[in-house]
Design a protein that fits this description.
Elements: H1 3-26, E1 34-39, E2 42-47, E3 53-59, E4 62-67, H2 72-95, H3 120-146
Antiparallel strand pairs: 1-2, 2-3, 3-4
Helix pairs in contact: 1-3
């Protein structure tokens, strides 16, 4: 995998993780909607409301921002397919009278979990993880710029 593809994938991941937290911070006004980060070919623009990442730079007609492809929809489809497959396998085990593995005992054959709804502590943990990922992404970009 080339270095640019890795960088784009890291940026998309950071945008996907930072989107909800950034949306909560940017709800106050439009002046903080975008965040720009310098890269070799121009700037990466992160939309703090939607989480969309765009590559901004000089074009034939002047400066323009082009969205970076996001594979989120493909990932969600694959997750849904795997959940259906997992539910079918669990149902097959239960139909044959075999017990489910201990790690999946809390999950029913339909894929629903018995976990309680998320609370404020879960939100704080998510924000902490997003901040760590963002710092690592910035460190990666600084390291790429130096090399």
């Amino acid at each position: 995998m080339t270095l640019m593809i890795r960088f784009v994938l890291a940026a998309c991941l950071a945008a996907a993780l930072a989107g909800p937290a950034a949306h909560a911070q940017a709800a106050g006004g439009d002046d903080n909607r975008y965040q720009f980060n310098r890269v070799d070919d121009g700037y990466l623009r992160l939309d703090l409301r939607s989480g969309e990442v765009s590559m901004c730079g000089p074009r034939d007609t002047g400066w323009a921002c082009l969205p970076i492809a996001d594979d989120r929809v493909a990932f969600e489809r694959e997750i849904a397919r795997l959940r259906r497959e997992n539910a079918a396998l669990k149902k097959s085990l239960l139909d044959r009278g075999l017990p489910l593995p201990a790690s999946t005992a809390a999950t029913t054959a339909s894929g629903d979990t018995a976990a309680p709804p998320p609370g404020p502590a879960d939100g704080n943990r998510v924000i902490s993880v997003v901040e760590r990922v963002w710092r690592r992404l910035v460190e990666l970009m600084v390291g790429l710029r130096r090399s």
